[in-house]
Amino acid sequence: MNSLFEFIPFTENPLYENIIADLTKKQYSIVDGFFTKDEVEALRKSLSQKYEEDIFKKSAIGNRTNEVIRAKVRGDIILWIDEDKANSAEVLFFNKINDLKDYLNRTCFLGINQKEFHYAIYPEGTFYKRHLDTFQNDDRRKLSFVCYLNEESWKPENGGELVLYLEHGEETIYPFPGKVVIFESQVLEHEVKPVNTPRLSITGWLKTR
Ligand SMILES: O=C(O)CCC(=O)C(=O)O
Ligand SMILES: [Fe+2]
């Protein structure tokens, strides 16, 4: 019997191929301008609206951790995004994510069949200490995905760099708008350095069941 794949037209996507090559070689990939200026602006507006509605929550670092311990580890506030109730900006966001996910599944057989994404705001003075994204008892997380929604005027001095701890050295990444960072959740420890200006993003995970 023929494989089902043979009947689905397949066009190679150079951007996705680059991401795959990066992930294979160094377990992470950085894409400037993964989201356009307009997309970032729409998503930032959506984030601000929800922030005004006061529905963001303090992030967690596991079950039963107390507030003092939590604040020493991470200070961001988050809001999970429900794809079924996505607004127009979020629909565009998920279209791109799903396209990438389908491509990865077709070319790398990653078996990603779940995902979860949340908005994150790092208020002034907050950070996220060095960690592995699977520490929250979630070994189904395969790829971490961070997308920055900061203003166009974002400057390196604002802080909030993402530092990836690699086998040999570190990679420091500035959270410029539209940039996306993808890395292997089970392998790469990372940290968000203290911010001195509110820092906006969407973070998520592509998961296996
Ligand atoms: O915002 C970032 O650059 C990384 C966030 C992060 O590490 C996380 O939410 O687990
Ligand atoms: Fe993380």
UniProtKB/TrEMBL annotation:
<dbReference type="InterPro" id="IPR006620">
    <property type="entry name" value="Pro_4_hyd_alph"/>
</dbReference>
<dbReference type="Pfam" id="PF13640">
    <property type="entry name" value="2OG-FeII_Oxy_3"/>
</dbReference>
<keyword id="KW-0479">Metal-binding</keyword>
<dbReference type="InterPro" id="IPR051559">
    <property type="entry name" value="HIF_prolyl_hydroxylases"/>
</dbReference>
<dbReference type="GO" id="GO:0016491">
    <property type="term" value="F:oxidoreductase activity"/>
</dbReference>
<keyword id="KW-0408">Iron</keyword>
<keyword id="KW-0560">Oxidoreductase</keyword>
<keyword id="KW-0847">Vitamin C</keyword>
<dbReference type="InterPro" id="IPR044862">
    <property type="entry name" value="Pro_4_hyd_alph_FE2OG_OXY"/>
</dbReference>
<dbReference type="InterPro" id="IPR005123">
    <property type="entry name" value="Oxoglu/Fe-dep_dioxygenase_dom"/>
</dbReference>
<protein>
    <submittedName>
        <fullName>2OG-Fe(II) oxygenase</fullName>
        <ecNumber>1.14.11.-</ecNumber>
    </submittedName>
</protein>
<keyword id="KW-0223">Dioxygenase</keyword>
<feature type="domain" description="Fe2OG dioxygenase">
    <location>
        <begin position="111"/>
        <end position="208"/>
    </location>
</feature>
